[in-house]
Amino acid sequence: MTISNSVVPLMKPEEMSPEVQAFMDERLKSGSRVTNMVKTLLYSMPSFRAMEFYPVRNELQEIIGSRAVYFYCYAISTENDCLVCSTYHAKLLRDLDLQFDEFEFTETEKVLIDYGRGLVNNANNIDPSIYDRLKAKFTPAEIVLITTVGCKMIASNIFNEALKVDLDEYLFEVEFDKNILPEKA
Questions:
Q1: What pTM was computed for the model?
Q2: Domain 53-180, what fold?
Q3: How is the chain split into domains, by residue range?
Q4: Do 178 and 71 meet the contact criterion of CB atoms below 8 Å apart?
Q5: How far apart are CA 45 and CA 116, in angstroms?
Q6: What radius of gyration do the chain's Cα atoms show?
Q7: Mean pLDDT in consecutive groups of 10 residues from the start of the chain, 185 residues
């Protein structure tokens, strides 16, 4: 058993509203995880709906694939020093069984990593060459979606860090070297 440092304790089943209980039941029936972040957000269904990440992430995944999305989110989360989200995305990357001794980032992955870092570090001053690279690869609608996913990821990072949401137990053994990312542009 671990000691919790979370500002907000995880909700007990008897504290859940009927709407939250129905959501939890449906999520568990479908085989989906209910992470500590989600369990924390469920104190307020409007908050959960506002922070819900997967609908936009899944739409972007259909366009650029899992690997590019995971690197994008991992770059944002490591740049933000968010333990929960960087560990989660490290697990997703590890599960892809990438061989890093033979690995090369695609141009799409490189521009997404650079853009994600720019969003975190100074969204008002992203290098114009990054925008040029985005425009060369993506439509305006796709750039809006990419930016939305990045903003949702940053919001998740801030939420987890501000409330000191505990790392989910299934992530305890995940290790991933953030130095695997390419050098900053």
A1: 0.89
A2: AhpD-like (1.20.1290)
A3: 13-52, 53-180
A4: no
A5: 28
A6: 17
A7: 82 89 92 90 94 94 96 94 89 83 88 97 96 98 98 96 92 74 70
